Task: inverse folding
């Protein structure tokens, strides 16, 4: 067991000092001196050497230690018995160590579970050994300065959005307290708005320079040797060079593991690859598009960073505040207070499920959507038409669209089907369409899917017809609303419809009553061109009955959409295919 009061030396290791101890034949002192600088790592061929000059560990191969430091001929004769220094150091008589990477643990300690000496390779946080303080115990001036930093994050990083700032503050607070965050910040804006000032403050005054790594070199993530990341608490990737989808795909595959996994595989020079704790939290900082988001991605928080610059006086004040040591300490303890308050409120922060939807994230998803989603949006959603065709035909038309627009995409049916399922578009059962795969979605269904998945936004120029619907709601009485949860299934005949669910018969009755009320409104001349509307309704009814007899429900659905366009009725009446059958109950 190690000495828990062990302190690392500040003087560099000296061969001359060892020779002096050998001459004095003080075996105990020799062992203590060597074990102060050299630490045998179990189950490896390496030794950790404490470099007093840099105050860091260096990994050295056993062979190098044997050849240059603890040579084979070094020995002490005590009572005519030789004490072989090299043999002793590498023998079981001299206890070895295992290495771990753990936040908020001493550098050297004894693990009661594994019964082993541990060297914690993770650097200590800058303020971790200081006496715990409450934020409100600091002077008012210190508290004001810390709040100035938070206000900058709120105003600049989050465009003063309360929901975004709450997430950003909790993310930073939990990260500072030692929690590995399983989502990443993506800060994208013009240069000079004040993104990096906060990163530098966290590095130099809050966490410590050894715990924060800033780099634009993606080789740190994608290269062979990644030992630096094992000792990093916050990694800020500056201006990732991802000008193409392929570059981003390669980087994102590595980022995904570093962001979400509890452990990482680490490869050091002169050492085998090993698994260790992943303590990494990540911020991506860019003045251009560096992250290409996909539908359903829950790993990136993309706040709406402002695209304007504050005054020189504003930044002079902020920089001065972030360079004060006591402000870094107070910020650190304030983060601990924020985490403690969050835990006491029984609202444990979940950094993935609570990521706010932002305008920047919506725009990113929309700009980087796959060719298939772009095709559906361009050809169907923006043209306000539904899909009603064979899946084979849809695939052929999509392939032609890609050729025409010179878009790269996987056009195999299996790949297209998977992409459709990703956003919730399913292929209809073959039994409904003469044993053929069929895509059946109304324009409203497609629009809702694209809105839910952030695949359409204001810049697409889509003009909603909601105002027309709102103007027509007067045709329905308040007590005649439909419970849409009870209307399930898509039967091919009215008899099947009644048989499938006993509640559906009651719904049909209610719907029929609603049509009767609509007829009353028409007869009382609540709409213009009364006779023309009634004639259109009669014609549509005849066509619906005819199509229904052919057992092709999708054709019925299309006719019903035509009816909806002619009369502009409220969606409460016309949103479900099943409602068309009520028109067969009475002829206007």
Result:
């Amino acid at each position: 067991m190690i000495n828990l009061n062990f302190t690392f030396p500040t003087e560099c290791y000296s061969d001359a000092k060892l020779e002096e101890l050998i001459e004095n034949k003080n075996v105990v002192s020799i062992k203590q001196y060597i074990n102060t600088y050299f630490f045998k790592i179990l189950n490896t061929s390496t030794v950790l050497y404490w470099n007093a000059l840099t105050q860091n560990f260096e990994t050295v191969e056993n062979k190098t230690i044997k050849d240059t430091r603890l040579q084979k001929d070094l020995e002490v004769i005590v009572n005519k018995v030789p004490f072989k220094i090299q043999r002793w150091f590498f023998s079981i008589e001299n206890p070895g160590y295992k290495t771990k990477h753990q936040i908020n643990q001493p550098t050297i300690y004894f693990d009661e579970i594994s019964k082993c000496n541990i060297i914690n390779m993770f650097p200590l946080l800058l303020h971790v050994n200081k006496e715990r303080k409450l934020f409100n115990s600091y002077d008012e001036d210190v508290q004001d300065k810390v709040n100035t930093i938070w206000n900058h994050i709120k105003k600049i990083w989050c465009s003063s959005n309360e929901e975004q700032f709450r997430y950003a503050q909790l993310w930073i607070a939990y990260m500072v307290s030692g929690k590995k965050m399983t989502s990443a910040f993506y800060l994208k804006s013009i240069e000079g708005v004040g993104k990096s000032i906060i990163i530098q403050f966290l590095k130099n005054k809050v966490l410590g320079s050894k715990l924060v790594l800033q780099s634009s070199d993606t080789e740190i993530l994608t290269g062979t040797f990644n030992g630096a990341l094992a000792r990093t608490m916050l990694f800020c990737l500056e201006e990732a060079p991802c000008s193409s989808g392929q570059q981003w795909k390669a980087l994102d595959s590595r980022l995904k593991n570093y962001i979400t996994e509890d452990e990482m595989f680490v490869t050091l020079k002169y050492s085998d690859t090993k698994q260790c704790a992943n303590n990494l939290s990540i911020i991506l900082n860019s003045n251009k598009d560096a992250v290409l988001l996909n539908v359903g991605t829950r790993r990136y928080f993309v706040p709406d960073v402002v695209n304007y610059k504050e005054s020189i006086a504003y930044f002079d004040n902020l920089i001065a505040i972030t360079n004060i040591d006591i402000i870094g300490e107070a910020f650190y303890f304030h983060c601990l207070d924020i985490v403690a308050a969050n835990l006491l409120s029984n609202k444990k922060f979940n950094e993935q499920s609570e990521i706010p939807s932002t305008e920047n994230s919506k725009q990113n998803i929309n700009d980087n959507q796959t060719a298939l989603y772009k095709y559906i949006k361009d050809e169907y959603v923006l043209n306000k038409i539904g899909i009603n065709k064979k899946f084979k035909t849809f695939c052929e038309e999509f392939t032609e669209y890609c050729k025409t627009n010179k878009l790269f995409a996987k056009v195999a049916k299996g790949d297209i089907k998977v992409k459709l399922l990703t956003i919730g578009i399913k292929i209809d059962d073959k039994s409904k369409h003469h044993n053929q795969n069929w895509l059946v979605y109304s324009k409203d269904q497609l629009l809702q899917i694209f809105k839910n998945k952030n695949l359409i936004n204001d810049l697409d120029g889509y003009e909603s017809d909601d105002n027309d619907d709102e103007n027509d709601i007067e045709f329905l009485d308040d007590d005649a609303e439909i419970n849409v949860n009870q209307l399930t299934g898509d039967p091919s005949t009215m008899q099947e419809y009644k048989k499938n669910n006993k509640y559906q018969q009651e719904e049909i009755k209610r719907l029929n009553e609603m049509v009767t009320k609509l007829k009353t409104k028409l007869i009382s001349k609540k709409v213009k061109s009364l006779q023309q509307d009634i004639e259109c309704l009669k014609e549509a009814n005849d066509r619906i009955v005819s199509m229904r007899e052919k057992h092709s429900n999708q054709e019925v659905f299309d006719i019903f959409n035509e009816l909806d366009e002619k009369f502009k009725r409220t969606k409460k009446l016309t949103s479900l295919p099943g409602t068309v059958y009520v028109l067969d109950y009475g002829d206007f």
The chain has a mean pLDDT of 78. Residues 502-523 form the longest helix (22 residues). The first strand starts at residue 38 and ends at 40.
